[in-house]
């Protein structure tokens, strides 16, 4: 699975995974292998209800998400709430993931508690979904492909805004945004793939410049909501001139 908001797995868990075959991060999303709960049970589950409400608000009001949804629709990959999003319980170290096998975004209802966090996770995973739609991404066998999408997600989703970095007690001046993007891409790869840190770092470094500068569909790095709103407006007007010729 592609991954968002990842923390490094515990050492014991990592050792256990290394002894077997790579499960592509599915161990972090145990509800993926369970029989779906009934609507009544899910409706009575507070985490699930809250997750669904926050998701709906994100999709309806967040400029990052609205731009990505429109871009995917124009690319022939219309996103439907009930089909392409799933609120589930996950491992404690993740907040969301993109399941390429089902083209579904997993939102970790037990780990996402605030609307701002939901906004960021949905945006991060929608960038993975957008990449899946527009390109032949080999998520499971080509670590460079995964690295590229993780770089783009960290760069364009707001993961590395100044406020988020301050909240993580990380400070820097020149080049700090690029450092944050690189670090978070590496962390996400390590959370969902059975590879060494050296392999993850090499993959990220080899594709970093090209993928960091790939700003589609935003056309800019949206450092805040105001930037995202401008990017959304520009995207809507992108083909207006040629369409009227």
End-to-end Cα distance, whole Å, is 43 Å
Strand content: 5-15%
User: Any idea of the CATH class of the largest domain?
Assistant: Alpha Beta
Shape: globular
Helical residue percent band: 55-70%
Tell how many strands the DSSP assignment holds: 4
Instruction: Give the rounded overall mean pLDDT.
Output: 84
CATH fold field value of the largest domain: Zincin-like
Structure description:
By secondary structure, the chain is an alpha+beta fold. The chain folds into two domains: 24-136, Zincin-like; 138-217, no CATH class. Helix content is 56%, strand content 7%. It has twelve helices and four strands. A four-stranded mixed beta sheet has the order 1-3-4-2. Helix 3 (46-61) crosses helix 6 and helix 9 (176-192) packs across helix 10 (197-212). The chain is globular. It starts with a strand and ends with a helix. Mean pLDDT is 84; it is low at 7-19.
